[in-house]
Design brief:
Largest sheet: 8 strands, antiparallel
Shape: globular
CATH class of the largest domain: Alpha Beta
CATH architecture of the largest domain: 2-Layer Sandwich
Number of strands: 16
Radius of gyration: 33 Å
CATH topology of the largest domain: Alpha-Beta Plaits
Strand content: 5-15%
CATH superfamily of the largest domain: ACT domain
Strand order of the largest sheet: 9-10-12-11-15-16-14-13
Oligomer: single chain
Distance between the termini: 46 Å
Number of helices: 37
Helix content: 40-55%
């Protein structure tokens, strides 16, 4: 489309930097206004044309036109004439000889002017010989030259370059193809092999624009094709597929264009911050999450189609380009399928007329580990059949039988399930799966869409059966060896989040779906009940482990009564581990692993003893003391020394801590010379999955607030805190802390934290500064603070639950409110998911009693006032 005449007039008269800035401002305003009126393909060409005019004008202003032997050449996306609002401007300055001082000065002025305009440029100055030399070594540079065009300068020099590119094929088609495929593999590995991140990169993710460009680059290099349409005449694309590719390109261009406008810069990752604005620009509305969900579902569908088309076309290209390397004799699998190399293909395109044969194909993949993919003609046939389906594949009895065989197959839920998910067969089988395809999750800690998260969960369960993965999943790997019906665990995994996005409790709704599915597929009533129970309770173990004190026998008894038996405990533990580890790549750590493992083992012991025979508190204390004392005596301490230290502690000390913690803390106290003063130790080796911080000090009501301030100032995360008073006026604190990435702190960091705490205890008036560096990301999630005061298992305690944005210093602010209300803190459990803090505190009033109603109301009001002030 033509640029507005006013813009051309402004450019014609532009001479100074300010003139060009005015031109750019006018252009971007025009571009933004036209986005809702014009097809995006015209707008990205319009920006390329605008940049052409600017560079041509600057070429004259900086007197580069006085040099007859140079050429200014656009390369890459700019060479294609495709520039999004803030895309890089890549160009090559081709010179006949090495630049002299005068030319260097002009080139410097030219580049500096572009930088001062705020443009992101990629440029190089090369002679013909240097271009050819770099072309030999750099496939990226070679690729950029495939799409070059002259902007200004010597046309003969440019034509000479083009002839060199054509006549000196340094990268043969075979080498170029292999290099681009390898490049794509590396790129996808960086994205963890999935397009379905909640903040996808529309350019680099699998199914993004780069996948489309790879198709075009290979086609241009091997077939000398100038357009994708030419692939139809070469027999690689049907007319329908060509139209599909054009539709995908236009949609991805629209989304990338809107993203640039929303971000105001060259940004290709669709971050949460930009999603609402981009959705509004694209016409999805201004309804917040609802608008974003509509946009993102569209994007993920497009990426799925692009990824599949990319795979199909590159497989076709491989057969044409690597002829000698991919010749394989077909190996019959049955009358309908055969293996060709590492791919499976149908013997006749009509095979899928019987729909159950779709699943038979995946059964063969499960049977033959050497099969890693689907032959392109077969993939094309399957795509066509999938699009012509008039109902769900599960409506066919033959498909149901085949699906059951697959889910019970030892390898059925490995690569076979992954390919079924990748190629839309699971969505064609389960109508509920179609609803979660591309479903966003606005809970701040999931990294993937619901369907991709579920796929990763299934993959985790499959790893339990892999002997090479036993170190990663030691308990789960042992459990599944005695699991009589592993297919029930897989089904629970498939359905655990399948009702997300419908409104209501997704666990309850998913349990209904799971029960219906099981009955439809011939499972017994008891099997259906187990799957439904697992789906309905799939969050129970995680919530109990992370929010409650699993050293409390009452907590274990309550959890065990809900689980009821060891079989359900085994299934639930395996499902929970797979679920958490599939949430995002940073959520799982040794601390969470330890919590779940200990909850599992404690509950297993309780179930074996019998729910009617809960372990007596005195028996538990006696066992812990016995084990801890045995270890301390081995370290050389006398029994009377140990008894003296322990005589100062109340019984709840021995129920709150494990025998390892008791022996570690006691070992430290036994080495202290003066027990009338404070003492601090920070473990240099992880215990229970985290770094232990133990503080012994004379009691002071404000000490908890000060300690969390020190730890926060060191940028460590508190995962758990316990507070115990002694019989003689002292207090012990035990914190479990981790680094920001979830790892235990290093030895040097542990020593730094210890010194910080000691410095505070030596100078109680010392002020601790916690830097406020809260990110503005997630502001659209609108997380409102919540404070709930509940009764505790002990009648003289209260449980406080606080949910809020996890701002720096949050714990300190909460502790200050507790201090102002004259509260004693007995225990704290700190959980952070994304940027949301979910903190639990066991507290009592100044008289060590539960709060009365008036005090509860005041505490809630004070906390809400503080939290709202801090988060606004």
């Amino acid at each position: 489309m033509a640029l507005p005449n006013k813009l051309k007039t402004l450019l014609d008269s532009a001479n100074t930097l300010e003139d060009f800035k005015d031109c750019s401002a006018y252009f971007y305003k025009w571009l933004s206004n036209e986005f809702s009126k014009q097809p995006v393909k015209y707008l990205i060409r319009a920006r390329a044309e605008f940049v052409d005019l600017m560079l041509q004008k600057l070429y004259v202003i900086t007197e580069l036109n006085r040099h007859d032997d140079i050429a200014l050449i656009a390369v890459g996306g700019y060479g294609r004439g495709e520039l999004h609002p803030y895309s890089d401007i890549d160009f090559l300055v081709l010179v006949r000889n090495e630049p002299n001082e005068q030319l260097k000065e002009s080139l410097g002025q030219f580049v500096t002017f572009l930088w001062d305009l705020g443009l992101e440029i990629g440029h190089s100055v090369r002679t013909h010989e240097q271009v050819l030399e770099q072309k030999k070594q750099d496939v990226h540079f070679t690729t950029s030259l495939l799409e070059c065009r002259l902007i200004s300068g010597n046309e003969l020099e440019f034509e000479r370059l083009k002839s060199h590119i054509i006549e000196t094929p340094i990268w043969r088609s075979e080498e170029f193809f292999i290099a681009k495929v390898d490049e794509q593999k590396i790129r996808r590995k960086k994205c963890h092999g999935t397009a379905y991140n909640l903040e996808p990169n529309v350019k680099e993710n699998p199914g993004g624009l780069r996948d489309l460009q790879t198709i075009f680059w290979v086609a241009k290099k091997h077939f000398h094709a100038e357009t994708l349409r030419e692939l139809i005449s070469h027999g690689y694309l049907t007319h329908e597929e060509y139209q599909e590719l054009l539709e995908c390109i236009e949609n991805l261009w629209n989304i990338r264009f809107a993203l640039h406008l929303a971000a105001g810069r060259n940004e290709n990752r669709l971050l949460f911050d930009y999603q609402p604005h981009a959705a509004e620009l694209l016409g999805f509305g201004s309804e917040g999450k609802a608008s974003v969900e509509r946009m993102m579902k569209r994007l993920f569908r497009i990426m799925s189609r692009v990824r599949e088309m990319n795979q199909m076309l590159l497989s076709y290209f491989e057969q044409s380009i690597l002829v000698d390397q991919v010749k394989h004799q077909p190996q019959p699998l049955d009358k309908n399928f055969e293996r060709v190399g590492n791919r499976i293909q149908v013997t006749d395109p009509s095979v899928f007329f019987k729909r159950e044969h779709i699943f038979v194909l995946f059964e063969h993949i499960a049977d033959n580990p050497e099969i890693t993919d689907i032959e392109p003609n077969t993939l094309r046939t399957m795509r066509q059949v999938r699009r012509r389906l008039l109902g769900d594949l599960q409506d066919y009895a033959g498909c149901r039988d085949a699906f059951l065989r697959l889910i019970k197959h030892p390898n059925g839920m490995g690569r076979a399930f992954t390919l079924m998910h990748k190629h839309g067969i699971i969505a064609a089988y389960l109508p509920q799966w179609r609803n979660i395809f591309g479903q966003m999750q606005f809970d701040l800690f999931h990294a993937y869409t619901v369907d991709e998260h579920t796929h990763k969960l299934i993959n985790n369960i499959y790893k339990y059966f892999d002997k090479n993965k036993q170190k990663d999943f030691p308990i789960c790997s042992e459990i599944v060896t005695r699991m009589d019906k592993p297919e029930l665990l897989y089904l629970a995994g498939i359905f655990h989040d399948i009702a997300k996005g419908r409104g209501g409790d997704h666990s309850e709704l998913g349990a209904v779906d799971a029960n219906t599915f099981c009955k439809m597929h011939g499972f017994s009533n008891s099997e259906a009940r187990l799957v439904a129970w697992l789906v309905e309770n799939h969050l129970l173990m995680s919530v109990t482990a992370q929010r409650k004190d699993i050293n409390d026998p009452n907590v274990i008894a309550e959890f065990a009564s809900h689980v009821k038996n060891e079989r359900q405990l085994d299934y639930l533990y395996c499902l929970t581990v797979a679920d958490i580890r599939a949430t995002n790549d940073n959520l799982w750590n040794d601390w969470k692993n330890t919590l779940l493992r200990e909850l599992y083992l404690h509950t297993q012991r309780a179930l074996r003893a019998g729910l009617e025979n809960p372990m007596d508190m005195r028996d538990q204390i006696r066992d812990k003391k016995q084990q801890a004392k045995h270890r301390l005596i081995e370290l050389g301490f006398e029994e009377n020394q140990i008894d003296f230290i322990w005589s100062r502690f109340k019984a709840n000390y021995f129920t709150a801590f494990s025998e390892q913690q008791i022996s570690w803390q006691s070992e430290h106290l036994l080495k202290v010379k003066d027990l009338s003063d404070f003492s601090v130790v920070v473990g240099e080796k992880p215990l229970h999955g985290g770094t232990q911080v133990f503080v012994y000090s004379p009691y002071e009501a404000s000490l908890f607030a000060k300690l969390v301030s020190v730890i926060g100032s060191k940028k460590a995360q508190i995962q758990h805190a316990q507070v115990m008073t002694t019989k003689d006026g002292f207090v012990v604190f035990n914190f479990v802390i981790l680094e920001q990435d979830g790892d235990p702190v290093s030895i040097n960091r542990a020593r730094s934290i210890r010194k910080g705490i000691e410095s505070l205890l030596q100078d109680p008036k010392k002020k601790i500064r916690v830097k406020k560096n809260r990110s503005h990301r997630f502001k659209d999630f609108n997380i409102k603070p919540k404070v709930i005061v509940r009764p505790h298992a002990r009648e003289n305690r209260n449980l406080i639950e606080i949910q809020a944005i996890d701002i720096p210093g949050l714990l300190t602010k909460i502790a200050e409110v507790f201090q102002a209300n004259s509260l004693h803190i007995h225990a704290a459990r700190i959980t952070t998911v994304g940027e949301r803090a979910e903190d639990f505190f066991v507290i009592s009033n100044k008289d060590y009693q539960a709060l009365d109603e008036e005090h509860k109301v005041k505490l809630q009001r004070d906390l809400m006032k503080k939290l709202n002030a801090e988060t606004n």
